[in-house]
Amino acid sequence: MIKKLAIAVVVLAVIAAGIYSNTNRTPSAQRVQTESIEHRELTAKVSGSGQIRPFREIDMSSNVMGRVEELAVQEGEEVSTGQFLLRIDPVRYASAVEQVQASIASAETSLTLAEQNLQYAREVLDRRQGLYEQDLLSEEAYLDALQNVRREERTVQLRQGELDRLSAQLKQSEHDLAQVLFTSPLDGVITKLNIEEGETAITGTMNNPGTVLLTIADLSFIEAEIEIDETDIVDVAVGQPAEVRIDAFPDDVFAAEVIEVGRSPISAVQSTSQAVNFKVVVRVIEQVPGARPGLSCTADVITATRRNAVAVPIQSLILREVRLDDDGNVVELDPVAELLAEVDGEAATDPAELEEIEGAFLMRDGEARFAAVEVGIAGERHFEVISGIEAGDEVVTGPFDIIRSLASGDRIEKTGASGRAGNSEAE
């Protein structure tokens, strides 16, 4: 105990000497860069890359098989709604229509004959029924006439059913004949032409898709289909504004709007890890002359904007273990108490009382003071400050190696300001 007391006396003497020395000379201060906290316009963005796609795109396939008899368009040609595109040889399908029409004519004749036979059978039945009721005709003759009427009625029904079947078949044959003629369903551009005049168009089956003859795209407006990382997708919503940059037009930025946010992930395996992305579609509001489907692009989705936010430079924020009071303020540690505790082999501050918080060092009367900071949205170079720092405060911005080792209470000396002039960020 006497030994510890002696050590404490020595420590106090050293501290007293240090205090005396501080009153007679100025200690060396660390040279730091600072920036005055200002109100700024902040914009939070989420970025993704992808490809341009048309506002509307139609792949035209053939429902009938045959040789392309006439082709009236070329790839890259602009077309309008209803414009003739191509025709498949119609002879086969025209013949099918004529055959069905002939069968219908024969069926109508058979139906007419059956209806006449039915009418005659009914007249015979009426006469025999009168004679039968007067006991002038046998029951067998009467029943024979009745059975004949029923037989002729069934014959008429069969002939009518055959005529209905052939009428339906005619509609199908006429539909097939109409399928040989292709016209444009929209105003657009022929972006793909996969067939030449004289080649045969193949129809698809359940397991084998048919030939895509051509593709028409409406490029009056274009869309960008991009992929957003799973950590950012939660901030993206339909209706948010966006900016699109197309690699083919490096000097232009196009205004856009989010129209679709994927709910199912698009997984892409990368070496040892798996990156999960989500599809986001943004529609470019203005027209882009010369745009083509498949062009590479990037898009910045603006997820939040603050017009007049207190902003702290990103490089000023660090994580530190500190002790907080009941109001959430940082409690400055007593260096004398800490030193005496070390002499005693103990810690003046219970590690359980320390919390790792985000904050920044402020310059106060030539000293660094750590302040806990609650941040909001992230701009390009600044974070929005919700609490902890006010406009006009002087915050330490660098160098990084000094900020990393800086302690609250250290003397600092300003060497210059960092950051950009002005009070807004062009995100």
The helix content is 25-40%
Rough outline? elongated
How would you write the strand order of the largest sheet? Answer: 2-9-12-11-10-13
The number of helical segments is 5
Rg measurement, Å: 44 Å
* Class from secondary-structure proportions: alpha+beta
- The level 1 CATH classification of the largest domain is Mainly Beta
Biggest beta sheet summary: 6 strands, antiparallel, barrel
Report strand %: 35-45%
Kindly report the CATH topology of the largest domain.
conserved putative lor/sdh protein from methanococcus maripaludis s2 fold
Rounded average pLDDT? 83
What is the string of SSEs from the N terminus onward?
Answer: HEEEEEHHEEEEEEEEEHEEEEEHE
Q: CA-to-CA gap between the ends? A: 65 Å
CATH architecture annotation name of the largest domain: Beta Barrel
The overall strand count is 20
Stretches where pLDDT is under 50 for at least 5 consecutive residues are 2-7, 19-26, 334-343
Number of domains: 3
